[in-house]
TrEMBL record:
This is 3-dehydroquinate synthase. GO terms for molecular function: metal ion binding; oxidoreductase activity, acting on CH-OH group of donors. The keyword Metal-binding applies. Gene3D superfamilies: 3.40.50.1970, Dehydroquinate synthase-like - alpha domain. InterPro entries: G1PDH (IPR032837), Glycerol_DH (IPR016205). It comes from Methanocaldococcus infernus (strain DSM 11812 / JCM 15783 / ME). SUPFAM superfamilies: Dehydroquinate synthase-like.
Length: 319
């Protein structure tokens, strides 16, 4: 879990002070081509797609989007160094979690020791990324519902505290979206994503924030090269959350389908397969593949029957 979390305008100015408090004197910044301009203190910098040599550095700073931060976390983990997260957008909860998603499935590495989220910078990021961020937050709801299901059906270990924390983060953001003019959306979203990542770190498992909706997203990722579409992780998780919530509703279980749907619609996030740039056949392949992605019990169980898949399609296409 982060020892320092700074979420405000001009937060980047706090970076040298945070390094000093942590007694870190020689950082290496890992960034992307479009985000390296934010390295305003001229620390040594490498691009995340370059070969990275770490000798002589005492920490890694991930400056950029999800890929830059993931590479920074991975490099820090491999070299037993602390990592500091400086996100330039808010599209997923990797900002503060120990999760590294460079390979499928993702794995737990080391959580950032500090997170510095500059709202002035994040607000300038592409609107599509900020819409996708909501998809990764609403997925906390179905992740927890699936986790509860796993406890009931296969006696999986369950953390009530982590589940409540994760669910509350999502519900509070949805409530804000449905009852506001979205003036503070970027700040609220960023705080929610950081909270979600911390929740994963606390539980030492992705369970509080990853259920059947993430299996669906991971399956889509595996199909991208084959079918040539480019939907984002958070976008896929948002649509996946609608699917999983619908399945819980069909079984008469706790669900928040209407609130999730309305919040995604309000920020103009994807809600249908068409919005993701895929058709029924790609969605069918992803739903079939999803339960096989990893050993994780969800409402998809060992796989949906053909009539259940058709029912899901009819629901999504009706939105």
């Amino acid at each position: 879990m982060p020892r320092y979390t700074i979420i405000k305008r001009k937060a980047l100015n706090s970076l040298p002070e945070v390094l000093e408090k942590l007694n870190l004197k020689n950082p290496l910044v890992v960034s992307g081509r479009n985000t390296k301009k934010y390295n305003k203190f001229d620390y040594d910098l490498v691009l995340y797609d370059e070969e990275i040599e770490v000798k002589g550095y005492d920490c890694i700073i991930g400056l950029g989007g999800g890929k830059a931060i993931d590479v920074a976390k991975y490099i820090a983990y491999k070299n037993k160094l602390p990592v500091i997260s400086v996100p330039t957008t808010a599209s997923n909860d990797g900002i503060s979690s120990p999760v590294v998603a460079l390979k499928k499935p993702s794995f737990l590495a080391t959580a950032p020791i500090a997170v510095i989220a500059d709202i002035d910078i994040i607000e300038k990021s592409p609107k599509r990324l900020l819409r996708a961020g909501l998809g990764d937050i609403v997925s906390n709801i179905t992740a927890v519902l699936d986790w509860k299901l796993a406890k009931e059906e296969v006696n999986e270990k369950f953390s009530e505290g982590s589940a409540i924390f994760s669910m509350t983060i999502a519900k509070e953001l949805i409530n804000y979206i449905l009852n506001s003019n979205l003036e503070e959306y970027v700040s609220k979203l960023t705080k929610a994503l950081i909270g979600s990542g911390i929740c994963i770190a606390m539980a030492n498992t992705t369970r509080p924030a990853s259920g059947g909706e993430h299996l669906f997203s991971h399956a889509l990722d595996l199909l991208k090269e084959k079918y040539n579409f480019n939907s984002l992780h958070g976008e896929q998780c948002g649509v996946g959350t609608l699917i999983i919530s619908y399945l819980h509703k069909k079984e008469g279980r706790e669900n928040y389908l209407e609130e999730i749907l309305e919040s995604l619609k309000k920020v103009k996030a994807p809600i249908t397969f068409e919005d993701l740039g895929i058709d029924r056949e790609i969605a069918r392949e992803a739903l079939t593949l999803a339960p096989k992605i990893r050993k994780r019990w969800t409402i998809l169980r060992n796989g949906l029957r053909e009539e259940e898949i058709e029912d899901v399609f009819n629901f999504i296409e009706s939105l």
